[in-house]
Amino acid sequence: MKSGVILISGRGSNMRSIVEARTGLEVRAVISNRPEAQGLEWARSQGIAAVAIDHKAHATREAFDAALAAEIDRHSPDLILLAGFMRILTPAFMTRYPRRILNIHPSLLPSFPGLHTHRRALDAGVKVHGCTVHVVTSALDAGPIVAQEAVPVMAGDTEESLAARVLEAEHRIYPQAVRWFLEGRVEFLPGDIVQVRAATS
Ligand code: GRF
Question: What average pLDDT does range 162-190 have in this prediction?
Fold first, then answer.
C-alpha cells in the first residue's frame, strides 16, 4: 500500500475529501504549520497522527522546512499532499521529494497563480474558472499539471459563491489525482508534461 502525509494550514476540507474518498492511500500523518488549524482536530478524530510545526517558532524558512522534512521523513511517505498549505517551500525541500509533492490550486493554471484567485477571476470577467492539481516544483503554482476541473462563472457570482463551486470540484479532482498516482498511471513526458495513462481493465 502506498502512503502519504497531508500538509494543511486551516480548515482541511481537501484533506478530508482525500481521507474520505478511500483512495487506497495510507495517510500516515497530517501536519500543519498552524497549531490552531481546524483540520488537525478532525484528523485526530479519525485516528490519524496530527502534528503542528509552528512556522513562527522557526527563525528562517530553511529552519522551518528542515523541521518539516524531519517530521515527514519519520513517516516515510510515498506522496506529500499539500491541501490548503499556505507556506512557500524552499527549493531544498522540493528537491528532497522530486515528483512526490502534489498541490491543489483554486484556479485553472496557468491562469491566476498566487492568492485571491476567485476575486481575480471575477475581476477578469472569465466565464470559466476551476481548480488544478499539480506537481510541486520550485516555480510557484507552475509545476506539471495532473488534473483540472472547470466550473462556470455565473451571473451574480460573488467571491464566496464562486469559491464554493470551485471547492466542490477540488474535492473531486484531488482524490482522483491521488488514485492515478497509486495506480501508476501518471507518466512524465519530455518537457515535464504529465500524461495520465488510460486504466487497464
Ligand atoms: C482551497 O481552496 C485550496 O485550493 C486553497 O486553499 C483552500 C484550502 O481549503 N489552496 P481547505 O483547507 O482544504 O478546506
Answer: 98
Give all domains of the chain, ordered by start, each with its CATH number: 1-97 (3.40.50.170), 104-201 (3.40.50.170)
Catalytic residue among 55, 58, 75, 105: 105
Does residue 105 have an active-site annotation?
Answer: yes
Listed in sequence order, the residues at least 6 apart from 47 whose beta carbon sits closer than 8 Å to its beta carbon are none
167 CA closest ligand 1 atom index: 2
Whether residue 101 contacts residue 135, with contact meaning beta carbons closer than 8 Å, is answered with yes
State whether the beta carbon of 11 lies less than 6 angstroms from ligand 1: yes
Q: What are the tens digits of pLDDT across the range 7-42?
A: 999 999 999 999 999 999 999 999 999 999 999 999
Among 167, 168, 171, 178, say which to mutate for ligand 1: greatest number of ligand atoms within 8 Å of CB.
167
The enclosing H or E element of 170 equals: helix 159-182
